[in-house]
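Methods: example folding runs. The two proteins below were folded one after another, and each record is reproduced exactly as written to the output file, sequence line first and structure-token line second.
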Amino acid sequence: MYNASSIKAPCLVILSGHAARWSATFTNDAPSWADARVDEVSLNIPEPTVLKADELGRIEIAVHEGVPVIRRDIRAARWWARPLARRAAAREARALMRLADVAGVPRLLGWDGAELLRSYIPGAPMQQARPSDRDYYRQALLLLSQLHRRGVVHNDSAKEPNWLMDEDGSPALVDFQIAWTRGRRGAFYRVLAREDLRHLLKHKRTYCPQALSARQRAILDTPALHSRLWRATGKRLYKLIARRLFGYWDNEGKGRVRD
């Protein structure tokens, strides 16, 4: 895991037996890890596959030295949405750096304030895989606990496309652009972490209800106050803005593009 202090050193990432080398620079005065360089691994792919395109930019899958990678291009965002898109990408970069030693989340390959590169995790999104094996959820709970121990709350585990079933049937979690990364484990942090857990249990209730324990059912029955308020007031407005204004939906696993 990288140190937040000033570092300049060559880094080596191994992906499926392949390697890519780049220089990464992190400084204390750089906002949101914005100096993590990606210049040496910028992808010269003539026609990458677009997974998602909206006012917040473009997400593509491309191939670098035979290795599939995911590229989030902030430069493709609308001018008025670019600050928000950059902040979301910086948040994802910060979260992935904290989780560099955790299996089941993408590896951060680079972030320079305009382009974020991360490793590609092959697999099917939850709504397609429909995992019914209780071991999948046992591993998913362990994955969430590893995030939380490192001071990261995903904050978007309610969305099925963010959960993958990888090629060996294990869970993986993607899309950390609204993750909590401050690392402070106070009362509010614990509330958010519990909501991460509750949303995973909702998926378990959908696909593997027979494996829910009594304690897990009790957690499902007691959403946090902010979650109840959100459902009662803000959720409809959010959907209206997200769909009408941004044309936004999470579909990395489906490969669809907004018209």
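Second run, written to the same file directly after the first:
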Amino acid sequence: MPSQVKHDSIDLILKEKQRVKWTKTEISNAFTLRYFGKRSYDYIARDLKYPLPSISTLEKYAQKIDLKHGILEDVLVFIGTIARTFSKRDCECVLSFDEMKVEHILEYDPASDEIIRPNNYMQVVMARGLFKNWKQPIFIGFDQGMTKEIILTLIRKLGEKGINVVAIVSDNCQANVGCWKQLGAHDFEHPYFLHPVTYKNVYVVL
């Protein structure tokens, strides 16, 4: 039995407990397994009797994932878990970011019971596999221009999860051009900046 099976899970197998409080890591592992298919998930849980959260538990957890302003830490946990199933090549990644106009209205978030203030624009950063077909949003910013600090922080955090950023992609609006220059990508003869951890080139692509 895998060493990460905790005492509560063992009690569940032995039917000494009917309910278990799953950790974030266990939920993330379960999401990764579910990613590979519902039939395999059901087979492991029902036929092999391996302790896994129910699909309804995963759905409830998904509703609580923090997708508000800033770095999406819960999504990064999921990326780190699924990256363990990738080859080194599959972990090569591109960051794409874009700003889009949103409706300027007050909104109510029932999950957090909060009123969300009106905004004009939403900035979204997406991590995409370069060789493997995967993508996840990792940053959401409202009325937030892209900055050197945001990009470098995201690259570092992805690196901690085993994902290597080799390029960034965006349009060439004035704000983005300013961000490239802050990073060190000054012109077409020098369209790259240094990765903050590996110190390899990270290329800027239009």
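Comment on the second run: The first strand starts at residue 70 and ends at 71.
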